[in-house]
């Protein structure tokens, strides 16, 4: 991809429904951007299948930056219905902001962000836009900076930082994709490796439904996404074996659900591998001993589907004890969510308690 000519200006286009999206071109652009930025780390394979999955809702939108006939930047937003303090809000989830390496540092990302947010707020009449960021990255400040000159005045808030926990099924192979650092390298020693690696277990669970849909009691959470037609189809078995929801019934009082997606991970010079991603957890009144069984059942499922590892963002939160006993360990990665809302909407959010948000 050439960027030498100054004769052509960058132009922008807005796709207001998924039906019009040029998935092949966008997948190539996103892959080029993220594989260049994370050359030494494994990343999600942002291929056509992934982009079609995250834009499953028809009202998903995308803003693209074009240099002639070439796609050089894009930003996505997916519709959600949010809830907080007994209120319901029209929301969008902003993500996968990408600028081709040859066209970075030209203000394209800022303009993509501005246009996408304006589209959400004006044409789609969103009350809230939600985005997720690595805690160690400048993503949230850069996001707010991009909106400084917007014609819309925003309220803003962000959540605390949440830890990503991981369960490992093959440490030696994982080390090739995510090199272990510091004391964690000790876990490659055979004796220690056998302790840390998760092994499939036989579990006594009275009833497990593998073709369920996400469902929650909203009063249990301070903020989250409603399990409506914008969210539920992403985590239902009808979308294919790569995503779904398990419902665990232990007794009349103890039921919990776990929604997941199996992600394809890629790293330069290595073949693609699979990783299980626990996206949403509704623990209900389930006791820790049974939550441990539920998480172990998910790990068994991921192992059966040839996943190298599994990961979970602990924003519910589930007790660290439960995660440890289920085969998970905390990683160094932290994520937080940022929210913006037009001042005129006077949206009041409570982000202090449990959250029900996926990570895409």
Write a brief caption for the model.
This protein is an alpha+beta fold and 360 residues long.
The number of distinct β-strands equals 16
H/E element sequence = EHEHEEEHEHEEHHEEEEEHEHEE
Shape call? globular
Mean pLDDT: 89
Low-pLDDT runs: 2-7
Write the layout of secondary structure elements.
Layout: E1 10-15, H1 23-37, E2 43-44, H2 48-54, E3 61-67, E4 70-84, E5 87-99, H3 108-123, E6 128-134, H4 139-146, E7 154-158, E8 162-168, H5 171-177, H6 190-196, E9 207-209, E10 223-225, E11 243-249, E12 255-267, E13 270-282, H7 288-304, E14 307-313, H8 320-325, E15 328-342, E16 355-356
Parallel strand pairs: 5-6, 10-16, 13-14
Antiparallel strand pairs: 1-3, 2-12, 3-4, 4-5, 4-10, 6-15, 7-15, 8-14, 8-15, 9-11, 11-12, 12-13
How would you characterize this protein structure?
By secondary structure, this protein is α+β, with helices and mostly antiparallel strands. Helices cover 23% and strands 35% of the residues. The chain is built from eight helices and 16 strands. It has helices at residues 23-37, 48-54, 108-123, 139-146, 171-177, 190-196, 288-304, 320-325; strands at residues 10-15, 43-44, 61-67, 70-84, 87-99, 128-134, 154-158, 162-168, 207-209, 223-225, 243-249, 255-267, 270-282, 307-313, 328-342, 355-356. It has a 16-stranded mixed β-sheet that branches. Helix 3 packs across helix 4. The longest helix has 17 residues, at 288-304. Residues 2-7 have low confidence and may be disordered.
